[in-house]
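User: My instructor asked us to take a sequence, write out its structure as tokens, and then describe one feature of it. I'm not sure where to start. Here is the sequence I was given:
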Amino acid sequence: MERKGFFDSLAQFVMLLSLIIAIVCTLGSFVCHFISPESKNLFLQLSFCAYGWMVFISVGPSALRSAFMKVDVLVNVLFPENVRKKLALICEILMAALVIAMFYFSLKVFQQTLAGGDKFAVAFDITEKIKRFGAPGGPALDAFAANAPRIPMWSAYLAAVIGFGLGIISYIIRVFKGGR
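Assistant: Let's start with the prediction itself. The structure tokens for your sequence are:
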């Protein structure tokens, strides 16, 4: 059995913590639906954010183990062993390029979000969409914006930056360990 490295252990801890937070927040939103409906959105947004962190952080350990989804049924039937190895190498190179590209683009989005000021996940997104469609604003919309959860968007976008960054580190580790 292979010993886990620091980044692998850290990523797995953050994934587990995110899963626990997501489950608790999902349960909290269900309970708040009956007890305090106005606080339901906060728990929903927190659970969405936690699920996002879990998914993006899993890129690192997945890249380290080459555990991305593959469709080997046709490849195993149609191609001999030496061609399969070359196809596997091509797929790994393409996945590494995709992880690098996604890191770059997620970093750009994260930087734009930080530069844009204090945008919040629910309050501004929904109120801006309502205003864009020409619906009248008024006190109801203002009250919604005032009571909406204030979860900063950068906290959600940071998950993609860290996750794809861990993916790049994992590919670098694999290259120096001899590929696998």
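For the description part of your assignment, you could build on this observation: The mean pLDDT is 76. Try explaining in your own words what that tells you about the chain.
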